[in-house]
């Protein structure tokens, strides 16, 4: 069992840079996230390498397709031995249930969670997609649908953590990107929260990429974040 709440987003375009960071950390100091960029560049072998080193790996491919396709993709992801995978909740309950059922054949299936509203989105971006409710209500709606579909948790902003824990219970896992230590550049994120506030509000895991990977001393930054939320 690894204890850190930090999942480092390995969004590197060079494998050597990612491995240099991985060489500097341990499975107790962080979990690792492989997203679309590194998976597209370096594929399943890269994921297996991280799993082989004993890390909990979140394969963040955000599947969103017809139920059959998503189910097969989730089974393929489970074969890699990863700790957690995800789909988009907006794919609907049939899609999420198919994903869940595809994992039933595994003794140790990955945790399956669903993305609610991307942390890069603000009210204007969301309404531009045709959603007429406010962000908080839409996140709550999608998180409820996710729980009813049998999944273990959601990706959301830590801004929504308190209300989701109250609505869906403390066992429902909340994974929150959009984490920014005080003074860090926000970049393309909109719904940002500091690590300290996120943990105080009850999140289970914080996804942190650039504030760590682009830092002049990534290991020291990770250590400081871990220490700040003890
Ligand atoms: O709503 C979401 C879902 C996923 N992400 C991913 O998390 C990291 C965040 O990286 P930062 O550099 O800390 O912004 C990135 O890999 C995203 O693809 C997200 O940001 N928001």
From TrEMBL:
Q: Which organism is it from?
A: Planctobacterium marinum
Q: Which Pfam families does this one have?
A: OMPdecase
Task: Write the Enzyme Commission number(s) for this entry.
Answer: 4.1.1.23
- Gene that this sequence comes from: pyrF
Limits of the Orotidine 5'-phosphate decarboxylase domain? 5-225
Protein name in UniProt: Orotidine 5'-phosphate decarboxylase
Give the catalysed reaction(s), semicolon-separated.
orotidine 5'-phosphate + H(+) = UMP + CO2
**What is the purpose of this protein?**
Catalyzes the decarboxylation of orotidine 5'-monophosphate (OMP) to uridine 5'-monophosphate (UMP).
What is one process in the GO biological process aspect for this record? 'de novo' UMP biosynthetic process
- Superkingdom to which the source organism belongs: Bacteria
Q: An example Gene Ontology cellular component term from the record?
A: cytosol
Q: Membrane spanning segments where?
A: none
Pathway assigned in UniProt: Pyrimidine metabolism; UMP biosynthesis via de novo pathway; UMP from orotate: step 2/2
Matching HAMAP family:
OMPdecase_type1_B (MF_01200_B)
- Please give the NCBIfam families that the UniProt record associates with this protein: PRK00230.1, PRK13813.1, pyrF
Q: What is the lineage of its organism?
A: Bacteria, Pseudomonadati, Pseudomonadota, Gammaproteobacteria, Alteromonadales
Subunit description: Homodimer.
Active site at: 60 (for ompdecase activity), 62 (proton donor), 62 (for ompdecase activity), 65 (for ompdecase activity)
Q: Sorted alphabetically, which SUPFAM superfamilies does this protein's record hold? A: Ribulose-phoshate binding barrel (SSF51366)
Q: Which GO terms describe its molecular function?
A: orotidine-5'-phosphate decarboxylase activity
Give me the residues that bind substrate, please: 11, 33, 60-69, 119, 180, 189, 209-210
Q: Which family does it belong to?
A: Belongs to the OMP decarboxylase family. Type 1 subfamily.
Name the keywords, alphabetized.
Answer: Decarboxylase, Lyase, Pyrimidine biosynthesis
